[in-house]
Structures are given as C-alpha cells and as structure tokens.
Amino acid sequence: MPKAVCVVYGGTSAERAVSVKSGTAVVAALTRLGYQVVSLDLQEHWAEQILAVKDDVDLLFNGLHGGIGEDGTLSAFCDAIGLKYTGSNMQASSLAMDKWKSKALFKQADIDVAKGKSYAPTELPDEAPFLPCIVKPTLEGSSIGIHLVEEASQWQTAKSDAQKFSAVLVEEYIKGREFAVPVYKNESLGVIEMIPNTDSFYTYEAKYAQGGSRHVVPAQIPADVSQRLQDMSAKAHMALGCAGISRSDFIWQEETNRIVVLETNTLPGLTETSLVPEVAEACLGWSFDDLIEKMIKEV
Question: What is the CATH number of domain 116-172?
Fold first, then answer.
C-alpha cells in the first residue's frame, strides 16, 4: 500500500469544474481507505506544485479532465521525474484526446466511426459541409462546445463557437441510443445507457446536471448488442494503448443495428453523476471506494 497519494485535480481546462468534483470525491475515498493524501488543485505553475510534494508521495492520482491531464503532458512529466501515476501514458492519452487521430486508429481496428472531417478554426466553411452534423472541438471532452446542426440556419452559431477552439471536428449526426462502456485491465465492466431528459443528444448539461439524464444499468438491450459494445470498447482501449480504466462512448442505431464509437476517455469522470462508478457498482458490486483502490493498486 502506498504511504501517500497525491491527488491532482482542477487545472485550467474547460473541464475544470468537473475535475474539481472528481478530485474531491477521490480525496474523500482515499481518506476513508486509510491512505495519506496530498491534494493539489493545479494552477498555471502546476509543475512546481508537483515537484514540491514529489518526495513525500509514492504515486499521483490523476483526477484532471482535459488539458494537461488528458493530453499526455502530465503523464510525460511524471515519467520524466520518476513519479508513478494512475491511468494511461503520454502516447495513449494524446491519441485518445485527439478525436481525429483516435478515429483513424479505431477504423484500423475495424471499429465503425462516423464519417467526418477535421478543420482548423479558420478553415471552417461558410456553409455546413453536410446536414445533419455534429460540430465539436477535436481536443475537448465532456461535450464541451458541442453543437447539433440540423438546419442550415444553425451553422453560423456552431461555427462561431467552434472557432474558440484550436481544432474542430464536423461529423455526421447519427441519431440513436447512447451507451458508455468502461474497460479495466482490457475487459469491459458492463454497459450503461444514457437517456437525456431534455436534449436530443448527451450534452454537458445532460451529463453533469442533477436530473439531466436517466441512466439504465445494466443496459436493457439484446445480449448480442451488449456483447458487441463490450468487445468494441475493449478493442478501442487496446488500439489506443490505454492503461487503468478507460470509458468508450457509443451510438446504437436500432433500425440498422449499426454501432458507432464516438470517443474513448482515458480519464473518465469520478463525480456523483459519473458513469464508471455507476457501472462498477451495478454490474460488479464495486463500491466507489473499491473502484478507487483498484485504480491505485493497478499502478
């Protein structure tokens, strides 16, 4: 058992608010489990913050979402200073964070993806390249900055918002049921369905606001569909080279029986409304504390 764990959270990315919730929950769990905990709300000079406590801890629990925590920067830094950490290494984190690069790897692994195109913000066309489409930042998570464009008149608003980000992905909109599948040690933990209460797709508000969505776990779907989702999630995890826990998100179109992977998250949320803890408890009987301790012991 590590003598002390440094939990990092917060940061400066667009997903800061979610990360603060995750980090707070992880700190509480580790404290209940009897670990010594050093908690760091990372700021602009994050490297100095970590170096200041490096010699007092045995490993770092990465509770960041987006930014340096999820794009591989933090993993690379920890490798350079010889500090163990939870989650995926620099390469897997970087590939998963970039939705365009990860799509290419998914296709190579025979996992179906939505057709789409990557743009620099200044290269977005004056009109939607196709309709309906989803417009989203290539390097963000938690549905930050995402827009559904069903009519030509909606394009300018989506384009204007997209230009705030460094890279943009425009994909075909596939209407269907949405699922998430966590993977641990290259095996699926189970399948959960997310049913938004107010929106036509799983937005930031649906994900994190209380009452924003309804979750069904285990998902009530045919056994063969459940198995395909679990197989595809494991393949996605391994195609990217992920370690620890990842979560892949999917759309299932019942009328065509098509399953499309949306993305893989190397740092899935650990909040009171997060999907991975819910799946772990419902499908495997793991408490939140069990889950956190498994993530620690995996390092």
Answer: 3.30.1490.20
